[in-house]
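ok trying again, last paste got cut off:
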Amino acid sequence: MPDVELVGVCDIIRERADQLAAQHGVSARYDFHEFLDEVDVVWDCTRPFERCDIVVDCAAAGKHIFSEKPIALDLATADRYIAAIEKAGVKNSFCYSLHFTDPYKTAKALFASGELGDLVEVWTRRFMPADMRPRWYGDQSKSGGVVLDFGSHDLDLVCWFGGMPKTVFARTHRVREGVQADEHAQVMLAFEQGGGGVDVSWWSPVGMSTFGVVGTRGSIIADGSGKLRKQIDGQEEEIIDVNAASNVDLSGNIGERQEGGTVHDLAESNETPERHFIRCILEDRAPIVTYQMARRVLKVVLAARKSAETGRSVDL
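nice, full thing came through this time. structure:
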């Protein structure tokens, strides 16, 4: 990013900070407070159970903050995060990247144009095989499980189309022996108009990613074949010329699966979330992804987990 100067990196694990700093020719610190007199923007890559205190201190120092997701593990912590941002008046956004990548971005533009009509259904199904048991993701108290850590991307996406759901119903599963976090989930959402569905998995041995929007006038579907198929009622099917090979790997890359199983990240279109945030600072714009949206996703996730625990739907 030509308008950005990387000042330094910080990690409480010193060797990691040193290694990354050497790679980029910048300084390494082991306490982020040491940077606050030198920077304008902080990129917060910490885990959700550590994030809020860091954001509160950075905001109080007047720094704009770009955070990884989710905003927090509970609403009280999310509200403390938000209060710190609002009090300081700094800009803030989150890496909910599907707003910036195809086929999702193209589908949203077509839906917003009215071409597909009113919403009937929007869904995603993303299976990313990964054994999280040895990692912090495999601890529900730290990651929130597959619905929050992984599925919050998908729930953010379907709520981008449908708004805040009225009702949530979910099932979660812990399949592997000794797992301490939900690793497979189905979530159904009832919006003011239309419905949504999210299926996410760290368990399924077969990886896949599909996505679709059905409206009252037509539909658009990315079926994992590399094509984004659109058809308006009464017209011929049309192939939209965007990369829609929406496979996903453990690093979160979305794109074309290569030999050997890696995924070449082809999906960035025009702006990455990080570039967008920098432009919002330089041009004094409001970011596309806001803390209100991040809080909405968290609220939906918590409702889904409550539904899975009780076996009943949850009204919001």
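cool. The chain has a mean pLDDT of 90. The chain has two domains: 8-94, 98-270+290-315.
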